């Protein structure tokens, strides 16, 4: 039986969540089985804590969230942050200079909260993020101008997401930031997003830190993902699984390809490799 693994880390969007942002009842039921077996299902997402909030009642058997692509680890049961990394203040003005005149929507994450320009939320389809309008309407902090927020929180920001009108535009922004040699990580996500994290921090760090905290050998962990920002955790985990709808980069980094998000790929992984069913 394939149940030698003790922890499985699941990306949320397009991995655990189906295309309509829901989770099947069978998958939710499997979380309880894992907890009763003394093992862990962990969320490992680019989202801040506030954006996982709408799922909290479904995640009653999940103790830990790895958020913001590894920059923040949150104990859902204790309602507290257990680890946090922030973008160096030296990068602040360069980031502002690169994005200030571009047609982008910027999301800033501070202490697990999501901050965006409220006027752009209804128009998120323009930035290839239309499916998230209800979420950002409900849980994000809305401001008039994101630039002062970045300045006021310099040195305290865990992550910045920059949403673009196309992948080509996100590449241009990434290249402009790369030319400045800033202490940040730049990762492509979603359809046209660019994610900025503290230097050296990514989902691989998050899963490694939590495994060490729980005294679980990294070889006994599983990572499941679909996109470029999942690749570091796929490389770090003992077993790397990509859902069938994953992009080519994630599939290349995986040991195995499992069913798609819409076909309950995470349930398949949990049953086969954690529960041994």
Automatic annotation (TrEMBL):
NCBIfam families documented for this protein: Cof-subfamily (TIGR00099), HAD-SF-IIB (TIGR01484)
MF (Gene Ontology): magnesium ion binding; phosphatase activity
Keyword Nuclease: no
GO cellular component: cytosol
Upper lineage: Bacteria, Bacillati, Bacillota, Clostridia, Lachnospirales
Protein name according to UniProt: HAD family hydrolase
PANTHER family with a match to the protein in the record: HAD SUPERFAMILY HYDROLASE-LIKE, TYPE 3, PHOSPHOSERINE PHOSPHATASE
Keywords, comma-separated and alphabetical: Hydrolase
Pfam families for this protein: Hydrolase_3
InterPro entries per the UniProt record, alphabetical: Cof, HAD-like_sf, HAD-SF_hydro_IIB, HAD_sf
Signal peptide: none
């Amino acid at each position: 039986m394939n149940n030698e693994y003790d922890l499985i880390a699941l990306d949320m969007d397009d991995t655990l969540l189906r295309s309509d942002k829901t989770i099947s009842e069978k998958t939710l039921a499997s979380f309880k089985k894992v907890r009763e077996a003394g093992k862990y299902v962990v969320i490992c997402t680019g989202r801040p804590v506030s954006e996982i909030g709408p799922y909290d009642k479904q995640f009653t058997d999940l103790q830990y969230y790895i958020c913001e692509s590894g920059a923040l680890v949150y104990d859902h049961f204790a309602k507290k942050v257990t680890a946090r990394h922030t973008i160096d203040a030296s990068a602040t003005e360069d980031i502002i200079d690169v994005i200030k005149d571009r047609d982008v929507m910027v999301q800033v994450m501070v202490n697990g909260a999501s901050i965006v320009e409220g006027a752009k939320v209804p128009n998120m389809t323009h930035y290839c993020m239309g499916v998230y309008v209800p979420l950002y309407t409900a849980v994000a902090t809305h401001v008039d101008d994101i630039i002062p927020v970045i300045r006021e929180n310099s040195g305290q920001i865990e992550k910045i997401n920059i949403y673009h009108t196309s992948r080509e535009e996100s590449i241009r922004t990434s290249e402009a930031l790369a030319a400045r040699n800033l202490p940040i990580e730049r990762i492509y996500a979603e359809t046209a997003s660019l994610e900025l994290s503290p230097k050296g921090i990514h989902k691989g760090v998050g899963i490694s830190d939590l495994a060490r905290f729980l005294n679980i050998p990294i070889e006994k962990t599983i990572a499941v993902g679909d996109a470029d920002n999942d690749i570091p955790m796929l490389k770090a985990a003992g077993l790397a699984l990509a859902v069938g709808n994953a992009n080519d980069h994630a599939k290349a980094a995986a040991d195995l390809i499992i069913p798609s998000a819409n076909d309950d790929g995470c349930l398949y992984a949990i049953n086969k490799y954690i529960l041994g069913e």
